[in-house]
Amino acid sequence: MASGAVDFSGLPQLSVAERVARGKAARREVPRSSHAAFEPTPHRLDPVELLERQADTRVPELVPIRYGRMLHSPFTFYRGAALIMAADLAATPRSGFLVQCCGDAHLSNFGLYASPERRLVFDINDFDETLPGPWEWDVKRLAVSMLICARSSGFSLEEQERVVLETVAAYRTRMAEFAGKRNLEVWYTRFEIEKLLPQLRSQVGGRMRKRLDKAVAKAFRRDNVHAFSKLSRDVDGERRIISDPPLIVRLDDFPDMEERDRLKADVERRLVEYSLTLPHERRILLDQFQLVDLARKVVGVGSVGTAAWVALLLGRDGRDPLFMQVKEAQRSVMEEFVGRSEYENAGERVVAGQRIMQASSDIFLGWLHVPESVVGQARDYYVRQLRDWKGSIVVEAMDPQALSVYGQLCAATLAHAHARSGDRIAIASYLGSGTVFDRAVLAFSEAYAEQNDRDYAALLEAVGSGRVTADRNF
Predict the structure, then answer these.
(1) Cα–Cα distance between 73 and 285 in angstroms, integer?
(2) Beta carbons of 267 and 257 less than 8 angstroms apart
(3) Cross-strand pairs, 249
(4) Angle CA(412)–CA(89)–CA(85) in degrees, nearest 5?
(5) Residue 164: how many CA atoms within 13 Å on its side-chain side?
(6) In terms of domains, do 332 and 448 share one?
(7) What share of the chain is helix, strand, coil (3-state, %, to 5)?
(8) Does residue 373 register a pLDDT over 70?
(9) In 3-state terms, what secondary structure has residue 122?
């Protein structure tokens, strides 16, 4: 079996009682209360050094934008600090049960998007760091993000604690629910917004109901046609992506003419290679579109500096658009601590993890490899639609009740993703029905939020001393 893979082979041979016993036995080996501990190790790596290590493989002129976005607040710093936290989590207790991890399960990496059946669903929507690993790591990353967001929003200490406790409790109770379901029931579960919306609206106040309704309505409008009107324009009778340097730079506007020419000569070939990673019927659909323009596009916080592209394709006529995101995939931040991925292509790693964890995935989700001869250094990519009813709610604007409700929804989808890949019965047995684990993760979150503040200050100091350069204009 490949290093880092989740071994499911023994589960069908174990009875439910045996899997329950596995979970209870793990409590004796790794008490649930032990998850409260976080103490920086004596040889803890310099957080800025870890960020600089990541910068070595990124587009140099974009790295200052990444630092600038991370310095907006302790919360945005946390969003870009997945490698730092993975290094810290490596020294924390593990129950021994592996799942397909998101690897970066903070609350802003959940959101709305369209299922292939044209239903608006809520799920995890970022898998750049996905890898088989300890389920506790995802739970702790989510819980800490809840606390940091609550602190940044000025919530009282009691409100902060409640947000975290209710989030972790939702993971625990949902995992217990999935443990009681049949395998196919778990696999077919989806979080459809149309069904969830009445309950969500009843749990929040009037102002948040309006924001929720607005976010859902906006998501329905964010499709390929909307992106077409916002991101492209007619130029001499041809449709072209609108340049907005340095955030969006068309390939034709690249200052490096040699790289531009190599890419232009090779792009059609790479599109064909990518199409071979799709199911046959979706290749037929893709073949009905023609590539007309390509641009580099800066995305997110943690991903800034990776080679991310947006491609405009047209179908039956000039008003039939398909916008694709071609996003570089590098090694998962978890690989250094839990073992290398079984996939040689990091894009395939992302796609495989996403298909395992998500209840529904983009119909054009696939991957490709671009060799060194084309882009200066070999790069792996994954491909998906840029916008297909993609939506989110600004978490920083939520009141305590709304943030708690949102955290519980994130935790429910995370539990579902883990239940699809790991031993949900053993994990549920380990967690139990009490709040021991919940309170332990709260204590961990409080300690780690303080560490995040120190790391944020370290990056501020590094910028102030000139060690690194940050551009806060973007």
Answers:
(1) 43
(2) no
(3) 296
(4) 85
(5) 31
(6) no
(7) 55, 15, 30
(8) no
(9) strand
pLDDT tens digits, one per residue of 227-280? 999 999 999 999 999 999 999 999 999 887 777 787 778 888 899 999 999 999
Q: What single-letter amino acid sits at 468?
A: V
* Cα distance between residue 242 and residue 308, in whole Å: 16
Instruction: Determine phi and psi for 326, rounding to 5 degrees.
Output: -115, 100
Give me the numbers of helices (H) and strands (E) for the chain, helices first please. Answer: 19, 12
For 196-233, write each residue's pLDDT tens digit.
999 999 999 999 999 999 999 999 999 999 999 999 99
Q: Residue 332 in contact with residue 103, Cβ under 8 Å?
A: yes
**CA 375/CA 316 separation, integer angstroms:** 31
What SS3 state is found at 47?
Answer: helix
Number of alpha carbons in the 13 Å side-chain half-sphere of residue 239 = 21
Q: What is the helix (H) or strand (E) element at residue 439, kind and residue range?
A: helix 436-465
Query: Are both 284 and 187 inside the same structural domain?
Result: no
Q: Is the pTM for the entire model greater than 0.85?
A: yes
Report DSSP letters for 166-216, one per residue: HHHHHHHHHHHHHHTS-HHHHHH---BHHHHHHHHHHHS-HHHHHHHHHHH
Only one residue has tokens 């324009």, namely: 233
Of 296, 309, 376, 304, the C-alpha closest to 63 is: 304
Residues 124 and 188 in one domain: yes
Nearest C-alpha neighbor of 133 from the set 330, 327, 342:
342
Token readout for 338 is 């839990």
3-state secondary structure of 379: strand
* The dihedral formed by the CA atoms of 435, 436, 441 and 446, expressed in degrees to the nearest 10: 90
User: Last residue of some domain: 329, 350, 385?
Assistant: 385
Q: What is the DSSP letter of 277?
A: T
Asked if the structure places residue 7 within a domain, the reply is no
Residue 148, token pair as written in the block = 């940091």
Q: Within a domain: residue 474?
A: no
Q: Tokens 């492209």 map to which residue?
A: 232
> Does 122 reside within a domain?
yes
Task: Respond yes or no on whether the N-terminal peptide bond of residue 245 is cis (omega within 30° of 0).
Answer: no
Helix ranges (H only) for 254-311 are 257-275, 280-286
136 shares a domain with 202: yes
- In whole angstroms, give the CA distance from residue 86 to residue 141: 9
Identity of residue 240: R
Q: How many CB atoms lie within 10 A of CB 356?
A: 17
Radius of gyration (C-alpha) of the chain in whole angstroms: 22
Please tell me the distance from the alpha carbon of residue 449 to that of residue 74, in angstroms, as a whole number. Answer: 9
Q: How far apart are CA 223 and CA 211, in angstroms?
A: 20
